[in-house]
Amino acid sequence: QVQLVESGGGLVQAGGSLRLSCAGSGFTFRNYYMGWFRQAPGKEREFVAAITSRSGSTDYADSVKGRFTISRDNAKNMVYLQMSVLKPEDTAVYYCAADRTGWENRRLENEYDYWGQGTQVTVSS
Question: What pLDDT, on a 0 to 100 scale, did the predictor assign at position 85?
Answer without folding.
Answer: 98
